[in-house]
């Protein structure tokens, strides 16, 4: 039995290793490229009809209606839609390949306090999942570690590159705190015991940060504390404090921590964020809405609560973005999650902004990406139809820093393989 299991595992590993070998990272942009006669969705709410976008050396040089220079390589986008590259704000992309195979999961570290764990060095550019996600227009992802209470440090990765050094877009951008749940479900342990344990864990994290602050205020150290050194960016504002939580009491504790230590804080999850939206706005707390297609946390919540949540935050002025955190989808339904929010109050441009510019602002990369503006990186996608619509979305071109990437993937290859095998013509 063990021998059969080993053979199955070896076969799976080999098929993973040798498949999709023809999908190579794109070389740097050469010359000037112009996308013409397109409907350009800038990402900040502006739409330019019959527009032209020009980029060179990986940077956008102009967006408007003017004709491109004569020496530009022109790509006619008549009838097509041009958008900023989409951004996953919270993802295990590149850390998990086959979820059922422990050897192919590299997102989870043992121990409770692991702020020194860095997802960037574990990011696998050879993952076959990545190509299926970018085929839908996702060009950047915030890759996040898991495990423990302080899970470690995330990095924003561009979804093209030979290795993690090529792929990193913003290194070590934030520390992730996974708030212990403060609404225990029915278990063998009394609810009071579970709550006490959760509050004790939260107090442990608060104590850790107080000790780290004292350590970092020391002019010299007898010994270097790697864990304390890894959170230095939270205190000087160069890193973001991502708190994964959903309920009102959990989010209020996150705000208390932000106030005590001066952390730039983002709520990840935020199921109940609409209940304290004004409070979050007053304290400059942004929210990453992780999932749209799931049931509410509390039994008396509206069944469509998740779909209505983006509009509720939009109306109150809270900075938020829409995400697709699902181990089955791996982020490939990001744009369709935003499309669902359109059916519940958002305009299409607001929904687009929730997966582009808003996500860039939350991740601290809006100076270089998130919208199609001169001076920003040429992270661009071209679709035959509405990128938010599952029926018409068809990405025909994608550029990361001006380099046109290969949109082929293993799923497309299998489709062609079996279409040919069974003689399917349509």
Summarize the structure.
The chain has 13 helices and 16 strands. The chain is of the alpha/beta class and 426 residues long. Helix 9 (305-316) crosses helix 10.
Structure report:
By secondary structure, this protein is α/β, with parallel strands linked by helices. Helix content is about 30%, strand content about 25%. The protein is globular, with a radius of gyration of 23 Å. The protein is built from 13 helices and 16 strands. Helix 9 crosses helix 10 (about 335-340). The two termini are about 40 Å apart. The chain has two domains: about 25-85 and about 370-405, Roll (Urease, subunit C, domain 1), CATH 2.30.40; about 85-370, TIM Barrel, CATH 3.20.20. Strand 7 (about 140-145) and strand 8 form a beta hairpin. The strands form two sheets. Strands 1, 2, 3, 4, 5, 14, 15 and 16 form an eight-stranded mixed sheet that branches. An eight-stranded mixed sheet has the order 6-7-8-9-10-11-12-13, with helices on both faces. The chain has helices at about 1-20, 130-135, 165, 190-215, 225-230, 230-235, 250-260, 275-280, 305-315, 335-340, 350-355, 355-365, 410-420, and strands spanning about 30-40, 45-55, 60-65, 75, 80-85, 85-90, 140-145, 150-160, 170-180, 240-245, 265-270, 285-290, 320, 380-385, 395-400, 405.
């Amino acid at each position: 039995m063990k021998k059969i299991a080993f053979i199955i595992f070896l076969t799976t590993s080999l098929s993973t290793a040798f498949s999709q070998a023809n999908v190579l990272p794109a070389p740097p942009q050469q010359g000037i490229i112009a996308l013409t006669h397109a409907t350009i969705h800038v990402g900040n709410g502006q739409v330019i009809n019959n527009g032209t976008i020009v980029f060179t050396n990986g940077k956008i040089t102009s967006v408007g209606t003017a004709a491109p220079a004569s020496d530009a390589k022109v790509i006619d986008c008549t009838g097509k839609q041009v958008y900023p590259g989409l951004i996953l704000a919270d993802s295990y992309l590149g850390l998990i390949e086959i979820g059922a195979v422990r050897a192919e999961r590299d997102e989870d570290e043992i121990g409770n306090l692991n702020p020194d764990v860095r997802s960037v060095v574990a990011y696998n550019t050879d993952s076959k999942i990545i190509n299926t996600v970018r085929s839908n227009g996702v060009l950047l992802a915030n890759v996040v570690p898991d495990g423990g209470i302080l899970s470690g440090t995330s990095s924003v990765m561009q979804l093209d590159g030979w290795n993690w050094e090529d792929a990193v877009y913003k290194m070590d951008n934030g520390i992730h705190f996974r708030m212990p749940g403060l609404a225990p479900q029915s278990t063998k342990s009394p609810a009071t015991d579970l709550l006490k344990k959760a509050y004790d864990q939260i107090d442990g994290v608060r104590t850790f940060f107080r000790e780290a602050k004292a350590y970092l205020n020391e002019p010299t150290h007898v010994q270097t504390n790697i864990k304390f050194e890894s959170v230095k960016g939270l205190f000087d504002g160069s890193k973001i404090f991502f708190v994964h939580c959903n309920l009102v009491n959990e989010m209020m504790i996150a705000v208390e921590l932000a106030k005590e230590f001066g952390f730039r804080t983002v709520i990840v999850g935020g199921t109940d964020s609409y209940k304290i939206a004004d409070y979050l706005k007053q304290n400059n707390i942004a929210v990453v809405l992780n999932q749209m297609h799931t049931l509410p946390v509390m039994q008396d919540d509206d069944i469509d609560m998740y779909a209505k949540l983006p509009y509720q935050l939009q109306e109150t002025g809270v900075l938020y973005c829409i995400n697709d955190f699902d181990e089955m989808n791996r982020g490939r339904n990001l744009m369709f999650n935003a499309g669902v929010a359109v059916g519940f109050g958002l305009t299409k441009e607001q929904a687009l902004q929730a997966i582009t510019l808003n996500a860039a602002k939350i991740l601290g990369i809006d100076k270089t990406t998130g919208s199609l503006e001169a001076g920003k990186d040429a992270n661009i996608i071209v679709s035959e139809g509405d990128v938010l619509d599952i029926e018409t979305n068809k990405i025909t071109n994608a550029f990361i820093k001006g380099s046109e990437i290969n949109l082929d993937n293993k799923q497309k290859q299998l489709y062609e393989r079996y279409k040919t095998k069974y003689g399917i013509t349509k």
